[in-house]
Amino acid sequence: MQSDNVGKSMEMKNIIPRILMLMSGLLLVSLFFFPMWNITLYAPQYPGGVAMYIWINKISGDTPATLQNINILNHYVGMKYIVPESIPELKYFPYIIYGMIALAVLFSIINIRPLYLFWGLLMIALAVAGLYDFYLWEYDYGHNLDPKAPIKIPEASFQPPLIGKKHIVNFIATSYPALSGYLAGLSIPVAFAAWWFKGKK
Amino acid sequence: MNSFSSYSSLLIVLLSAALFSCSNPGVKTGGVLDMDNPSKVYVAPGEHDEFYAFMSGGFSGQIGVHGLPSGRLLRIIPVFSVDAEKGYGFNEETKPMLNTSFGFVPWDDSHHPELSQTNGETDGRWIFINGNNTPRVARIDLTTFETAEILEIPNSGGNHSSPFTTENTEYIVAGTRFSVPYPQKDVAISSYEENFKGMLTFIKVGDEGEMDIAFQILLPAFDYDLAHSGKGKSHGWTFFTTYNTEQKTTLLEVNASQNDKDFIAAINWKKAEEYISQGKFKEVPANYAHNVYDEKSHTATSTMKKSVKVLTPEDCPGLVYFLPTPKSPHGVDVDPTGEYIVGNGKLSADLTIHSFSKMLTAIENESFEKEIAGIPVIKFEEVVAGVVKDAGLGPLHTEFDAKGNAYTSFFITSEVVKWNVGTWEVLDRASTFYSVGHIMIPGGDSKKPQGKYLVALNKITKDRYLPTGPELCHSAQLYDISGDKMKLLLDFPTQGEPHYAQGISADRIKPNSKKFYPIEENEHPFRTMGEKESRVEREGNNVHVYMTTIRSHFAPDNIEGVKVGDKVYFHVTNLEQDWDVPHGFAMMGANNAELLIMPGQTETLLWEPKFEGVYPFYCSDFCSALHQEMQGYIRVSPKGSSVPLLWRLGEDEFES
User: Fold this and answer.
1) In the predicted model, what is the mean pLDDT of residues B427-438?
2) What is the pLDDT of residue A201?
């Protein structure tokens, strides 16, 4: 009886971290099916708000024409057009995510404790780098204005918030993670859980 | 209208005093309201009305869309008349909509809007309306609130008893008000009895709403006034009122008012379908226009059709019966069960109600008093179900609520009378200000009346509003009919002269209302699918400008090389894809109107420059903070000039 229990707990100790690591990888797959970030602009003339969604590989809106409509609004103050084809990150970020998914599968096969920790830390580093990159783009869009813009507002910043809510001229802009952003974030504690379970006596 | 109205104003004073001096004081203002009435019609800022009301524009030729209970005007839908505000009938795309066998007819008199129905309930897909003057019917698409189709009616002399749908919108109808020679020919007017005929037309409505004349029925030369189709048990039949069964052609005011009874013509259209499939029709040459607006190409086409199938009652027993009805009946209205057919004898004090089941029994027993042109006339006492006695004077129209009550308008006594369907007892009466014609309860002519409101569409306005000179708007009045007593809630002005109206709960239309046209679906032959494609092309004297609009510029906005004598076609595509961002296009000296282009749409303005010079054009619909900058110039050179054709936007200049 006792040896049976020990055997079972040994088995669990091996299976659970592997499943958790695979889960982390699976959570990243959601990035290809759902948007990871949402910026919405609210103004009286836009009763439902104008919502823009950032994906790992594209930018979309609540309607097919949303991006055009945001660009039309932005051009009054000289902000650059948002052209997804000209944002290189949307092209190479997917490969980084493929890599992280592959590593998750590989690590769950190898099943060595430090690798789980490594994956989690690597994911944190990537998330921080990604957010910093996002901030740089926002800064560029908000500050790098066409000197021939029809409307110039001294001192005004058109940079959307990295996260949270902000007044931008006549708009209130909100910026929050969207579904796959939360799921990808969740992959980090799940990886740490794999590390913790693997070390459990 | 004018002589009639002054005559009837006199009657109002005399008769309302005489008939109702006991129950009503002679003068009523309607100004005393319950204190809670304002809240019943108050729709708070930003809130929506509960019902759409579609008011015919009468002599404006259009349809006015109002909200109820507020009465607010939401839109004028251009139908039978040109509308410079929207470019309707002025731009190249919509000119074909107003084509007829008489050529371009830019005006009509629209009387009776009728919503499409499914299982006898209004379904919010389309609304039909008749053009009375040059006989036509139109279909309006209620996803875009635009006229989608207009069909001319041949062999007709005034399309009044129309369109009045069947309960699944199998057919709409078109009965001629004025009988005319058949076929149309040069004859003495006094040969009326010999040469004139009255034609009733059944128009098949397809699954996508497309209209096609299925058959016409050749009837004696009477005036066919109004109609309604049966429902429930009487589905398969349509009823038309007649007047001038005296068959007079002059001073009808007197001469057509002599017979004690005229007729309601009962048409068995299912029987007609059988006769058509048996080939018992004559294919008769005709010439009539069928105009269709295509939502993808944003362009109308007009096709002339060349024949119709005509059924003659002599050859088709069981197709038509006449129900004697006092006295020059105007409206004919079928109650929600389909059993009762109300004949509103407009020169009578009584309302006559026929029974559909009695009619069937009478037909079975052949209880006929005579035949006219092969049409059996059923004995009056064998078909009548009841009479609403001394209800008022001048009954015109009846609508129904969901509780077994009917409401009839009385023009001469200027009131709406509520009565019970079955006991024929008068339950309530409410004054109108003044001289009500049609009345409307949302769904009030369908199997499922929705109404808690009744709208009275009045013919005379007088002192109801601030005066505006001799010409006044027509006045509508809203009554709360949810209780036992009708309560006047609101006066509101309407456009043209609303005859009939239709009402429908907003939730049957609102979710389907389109916000813009997807640009990728634009199939206009002269579309410009992006600024990079904007250009100018010359073909002889025709210059085609492929122009785009987007906030806040035209592309191109400078054009040179146009010459006096050219025909310049501005094909303007609005590249916007957002709700409520139309752009206008206005060209100095254009002999037509502006363009008003919805997002995703292409419209064309023809401009024929007459003098050399440089002329501005601009956006006429305030579109953005930089709307006032949305402008351009076109240079006109003399005939034979060698100025090259070029166009410009900002730094980009092109030459052809």
Assistant:
1) 97
2) 65
Continuous segment of H or E residues that includes residue B271 = helix B269-277
For residue B317, pLDDT over 80 is answered with: yes
Identify whether residues B152 and B133 lie together within a single domain.
Answer: yes
Residue B503 has pLDDT above 70, yes or no: yes
CA nearest to B28, candidates B615, B633, B432, B543? B432
Say yes or no: B193 contacts chain A, CB-CB below 8 A: no
Q: How confident is the model at residue B284 (pLDDT cuts 50, 70, 90)?
A: very high
* B585-643 residue pLDDT tens: 999 999 999 999 999 999 999 999 999 999 999 999 999 999 999 999 999 999 999 99
Contact B551 A65 (CB under 8 A): no
B81: preceding bond cis by omega (within 30 degrees)? no
Q: Is B518 on the interface with A (CB under 8 A)?
A: yes
Q: How far is the alpha carbon of B208 from chain A, nearest alpha carbon, in Å?
A: 27
- The residue in chain B having the minimum alpha-carbon distance to the alpha carbon of residue A74 is B551
- Would you call B577 and A76 a contact, using CB atoms and an 8 Å cutoff? no
pLDDT > 80? residue B57: yes
Residue numbers of the domain that contains B615:
519-655
DSSP annotation string for A90-141: HHHHHHHHHHHHHHHHHHHHH--HHHHHHHHHHHHHHHHHHHHHHHHHHHHH
Domain boundaries, chain A: 2-59+79-199
Q: How many CB pairs under 8 A join A and B?
A: 19
Q: Which of A63, A71, A152, A171 to mutate to test binding with chain B, by most B CBs within 10 Å of its CB?
A: A63
> Which chain A positions have a beta carbon within 8 Å of B576's beta carbon?
72
For the segment B166-183, the average pLDDT, to the nearest whole number, is 97
Domain boundary among B512, B535, B562: B512
CA B152 to chain centre: 14
CB contact under 8 A, A64 and B551: no
C-beta of residue B352 within 8 angstroms of C-beta of residue B341: no
Strands B121-131 and B136-141: antiparallel
List, in sequence order, every residue forming a beta bridge with A165; answer none if it has no partner: A174
Same domain for B498 and B571, yes or no, is: no
Q: CB distance B577–A63 less than 8 Å?
A: yes
Q: Are B36 and B163 found together in one domain?
A: yes
B478 and B560 in a single domain? The answer is: no
Chain A positions touching chain B (beta carbons under 8 Å): 63-65, 68-69, 72, 76, 150-151
Picking from B486, B512, B538, the residue at the C-terminal end of a domain is B512
Our count of domains for chain B comes to 2
Residue of B nearest to A72 (CA): B551
